[in-house]
Amino acid sequence: MSTAPGTVLLSGTVLLSGIVGSTAYGLAHAGSDVDRLGLFAAPTEGFHGLRRPAESHVTTAPDRTLHEAAKWCRLALGCNPTASELVWLPDDLYEVRTPLGDELLAIRASFLSARGVRTSYLGYATQQLRKLRTRDTADPAARARAAKHARHLVRLLDQAVHLHETGRNRVRLPDPERVRDLGERIAGDPAHAEHLLAAATDRLDRPGVLPDRPDERPAEAWLHRVRTAHWTSHPPAAHA
To answer: What is the pTM (predicted TM-score) of this model?
Structure first.
């Protein structure tokens, strides 16, 4: 396993980790934070006691989120935009890759579904639009936050349509400047976002390449391999 400097050590093994967020999208600027996302396998015997292992570990220095393997699978099967991008990153953004992590990359398409993409991506984009409608953009700091939310909205809609029509998650945006420009325009007038949302919804209503529901079988089989690989048998304790 290759591990980058500063990788958080857990009670378990990091299987896959990489740089996500604005850096991955191509939207980072000089002051942007570097966000990391990954998944880990907790020791299998930990699932057989009174308390289950923690499902997530989040730190802010550095900014890193790590999900336990089963939790990540549940998020990805629901097409959670943030979790899903971990298995669609450009190769140069991965910092930890293991054989089990590579196996997950090989089955990444099985997590996708037309219903999940529509529900999750449009849901998150609509959430960003609600935030935009409540911003007082006369304040420079509020205007900057509004532009950030607007960029996320545009990105989510672009990714949703691309997923629906191609079956692939395009994390690195092909035209970051377009997204930045639209973000500024939408921050000034959220009505521009309403047109984008309507156009994306129309394209998602048309037939696409994704199945209606994800195929859970590859994820289930992969998790069984993870649990087998991370089981450590101990001899029974001696009795007095």
So the answer is: 0.89
